Structures
1.
Amino acid sequence: MRHAKTTHKLGVKTNHRVAMLRNMVTSLFQHGRITTTHARAQALKPLAEKLVTLAKTDTVHSRRIAAETIQNREVLQKLFNTIAPEMSDRNGGYTRVMKKGFRKGDNAELSIVELVNYKPEEREAKDEDKKKKK
């Protein structure tokens, strides 16, 4: 029987869904904030939460488990060395999902997924530095 095996299927095959969620969680940890459809954001949140919880115990075993999902070495190091220590005092709720509006074209509901410690000022400062250099 299939008791308690609920998952967000997202209308795609299993391999596509797994690869898409891996890419999305990697991008989330790399950039701190991503924009996607609301259904995908809801599917992404539990995966990201579990990886941050796993990264709070920095052992070789937990790094190997996380490396199955995050296949970018730099992002994996960022998760274990910067993101997880910043979240060490929290017991959960490492990400937030905010509704953004609707996408032009297919009118899909968009959402922003971000880490709770995301600071948009840093990115804006980098963008201003790039403009000054030009």
Note: The CA atoms of residues 97 and 103 lie 16 Å apart.
2.
Amino acid sequence: MNDKKNTNEILKLADELRWEIGNDFHDALAESIHADAAQIAAVAVSYDDKKPQFDMDRTIDRIVTSPWLGFPIMFLLLAGVFWVTIEGSNIPSGYLASILVDTVHPALKAFADSINTPFWLSGVLIDGAYLAMAWVIAVMLPPMAIFFPIFSLLEDFGYLPRVAFNMDNLYRRVGAHGKQALTMSMGFGCNAAGVVAARIIDSPRERLIAIITNNFSLCNGRWPTQILIATIFIGATAPAHLAGIVSAGAVVGVAVLGIFSSLVVSWFLSRTVLKGEASAFSLELPPYRPPRILQTLYTSLIDRTLFVLWRAIVFAFPAGIVIWLVANIHIGGAAVAEIFIDWTNPFGILIGLNGVILLAYIIAIPANEIVIPTVLMLTVLVSSISGVGGGSGVMFELDSIEATSSILHAGGWTLLTGICLMLFSLLHNPCSTTIYTIYKETGSVKWTLISTFLPIAMGLVVCFTVAQLWYLLA
């Protein structure tokens, strides 16, 4: 009885002291330790010129982590990266497409015909698997080859930890752990990596929040989709000399919306099914260092660009086969793809999308990287079936961004379709790799299903709302 009484008294005293010291006790303690260390250093360290040396790191940090300048600088840097990517990827993309799609594909078809290859085998391997891989390379390689090296240089310079530092206070305010900002930054590269990175969070509750919300960080596979659609539909609404800036601003806006969604969902979870208090932590910022340009470029091209591209190609091969099969297997005189698209098109239009996009996202569940190539192939096939654009097979001339735009517009796409696709690209289920990683990290089917279907539900609601407002105001 005495032990129980003493325990209750200790808990009561701890609760009273907790309210006396306030929620910022850990932050205040860390700040006081650093302040004392600085005072000791000022007394113990002497300089030859009797003056403290200029500290470049702290000078930069006062600017990039400033409450007033930190976020505007972050947005401007992101916009600059996207602008360079958008402006620089058009010509090489068209060049690759002219070789792989407009030259090699007809040559392969001619060779297959010359050796009397069966129609179905030629279609599956050349019109399906090869064409999907060719469009993956043509559409995705140029923007990735520009975006990832620049992003890696910022990371190597030491700026990305400052982004996490700026986001720390926001995540703590919504009841999540400040380290979730670090997992969010990892998610911008790969959501599966971001999920694994949540291990740095000790609290199981806060770790689970970080895992569930990591999908709101745009991963490698979704950046090319955002950049391409923003270029075709958002940039086209502005004068030519401003198109790149407007497109970059649209992509930044979607990325910021993802961060906002992460904060909102974290706030909701921390006050309902995962209710609790946020833990405190101290983040030590690494020093700035000159980027190792050649090494960083090599690493980003091998570890990110080629890795992501290879993963996209691997998944594009079977996806291309599926696309050809659903377009050429007929039921009751209509192709399977045509039946599904016609059946889902009214629902797709209701949320600002279309049946082609819905089918593409089903086929592209294994990897986000193949969404756009799948959309393009399905759009061409549907246009061919309906006689739009004069197609009789699977081919459009894909030699530039303008040609890609013509494919989508021929499929009935509008500005609303582009906007809703950008939103749905942000708010939809994780790829199969991330879903499996979530299950391995949580060991729970329930939380895996929540992590998978919560973004889809949010995406459908957001797209429906945007579409209805568009229809109402148009």
Note: The two ends are 74 Å apart (CA to CA).
3.
Amino acid sequence: MKSIRFKLWAGMVVLVCFVLFLLWLFQIVFLETYYNRMWISYIKSEAVKINYVLEKGYNEDFEEKLATFAFNNNIYAEVIDKNGESLYVTGSSVSAGKMPIIDSGELEGIVDEILSGEEVELPVTHPQFGSEFSLIGIPIEISGEITHAMLIITPLAPMEDTASILKGQLIYITITLLFAALLITLFLSRSFSNPILDMKRVSEQMASGNFSARISTKRKDEIGQLAETINNMGEQLSKIDQLRKDLIANVSHDLRTPLSLIRGYAETLRDVTGKDPQKREKQLGIIIEETERLSKIVDDILNLSQLQSGNVLLSISKFNMSELIQTTVKSYSLLSEKNDINIIKQDLFDVLIEADEVRISQVLHNLINNACTHTPRGGTITVKMIDKNDSVRVEIADTGSGISAEELPHIWERYYKADKTSEKKTTGTGIGLAIVKGVMEAHKERFGVNSQKCKGTTFWFELKKVE
């Protein structure tokens, strides 16, 4: 398999060779043809300008201009009237007023054609020396009538000597360009292929699990941007890998604890306290509580998977937001009393919302539960409603330790737990806020968080009112 470096190098060398081929083709093969065409075109245009002087009746100026033109360009020029008489003759090869190297009979036919209004251009060869000439015939119109014919014979310059000189130059140019092309294309192919090979190497390392591998580049072009993208992908994969490890650790811990309690109390119930009704009821209650905790963990994981799969179907209905908040807050009364946390309802007002009531209730539960988890004993949680004209904003504010600016962008990520060094024990798998994000994005509504370290945190979300 040919490498990209070889393909780039070969492609650029072929391009240079093609350019050199075109240069040789046009400078050597077509040089004489191109030069003769340009020369004849120039003679014709200048002859038309001189004829214009005669058409205006300036005979003396015409003779002077025609003589100067013939002398400067080494041509033969003759003006013939309708009677076949030669009026003006000038230039090289003048011989008793007769057109050189042209048979008289042929000349008469050419003059008649010109006087009929046609321009004539014929190749002519000298009968003795074989030199190439071009015969140009141009009609002269005076007072709207063609009265004269101008005949011009101009030598066609041989290009052999010029072509030989150009060939010598082109040989040196070709060698120099090929050598330079080989070096430049080799450098360019390396500059393009080396970063790509580095990307391949780093990608293979990432595929094998080494997410710390990075591409070193200072390029600012598209290849540099691609390298930065791969580096950024490595950083994200590293974070995801760390989150995966945290998930395994968190879920293992959260599942192990209730399972251990369930097994321990079940064994105790079986072996020791099965006949004591009071102890039996207490231990059965703990078993049921831990079972419910396990069920909640599984439900959270299933809910998050469903939301992130994009297959969630919302059951849209109209409901009173204030009533939903009061019902949700009421369910946390026992927990708030147990943890000595005061939950305040502020500025509640009746308003109809059109959304999935079950999912919005899930958002409220997760945010209030999150606030309870991070609010110290004696703290306060405030659930507040704000009228925003076309929508209503719900805010859940706590007096906890707050979230640092570095952690704030990551709190919506699944399995992420802020403030891991906190002495306060937190439970759950760290997916509650990820579920909140999934529900609000499914509703296509705004949500967010405001927080400062040691000053508490305020989560908020908005829902549109029913018109």
Note: The first strand starts at residue 76 and ends at 81.
4.
Amino acid sequence: MPTNKKELRLHYKSLRKEFTEDDIEEQSLAVANNLISLPIWDKTYYHVFLPIEEQKEVNTEYILHLLSGKDKEIVVSKSDFDTRGMSHFLLTDNTKIKKNEYNIPEPVNGLPVPSETIDVVFVPLLAFDVFGNRVGYGKGFYDKFLAECKPETIKIGLSFFEAENQIEDVFESDIKLDYCVTPLKIYTF
């Protein structure tokens, strides 16, 4: 089995390629249903990634419904590939979403939300281990963003797959997850 980030990235990207649209919908709904039992619903600002369909990411639409049903403030991001930074905006009925050149759906404009005010972040990932380390796409956007959040911000990975035993090449700057939710279970770190 692969154990370093590069191998894990390749392995999980190829596993995801096998998924049909129905698989993604079914698994994404199961992830959202598992989220309901987490002790996170007393917060205000929830950051949600909008999935890159081409990468077959967890469809967060179910989570968006959950959050709006609970009347929460939903925050979405825009990525800056020059600085590897992200700017965050409140998702409202008026927010226009448009795909950027990397097919990432992003808000065109909106009310800015500083990273420090975000209470809960749903984190995209390709793989994670039983210690709460994650493997993303390797660009560092989320590590940089999570470092800007307050220390008590709750970080929740969303994954179609279960945990690896250990990711070998973890750096000190990698920010660990508090939870990771899969269609089958919830991991607490």
Note: The longest helix spans residues 21-35.
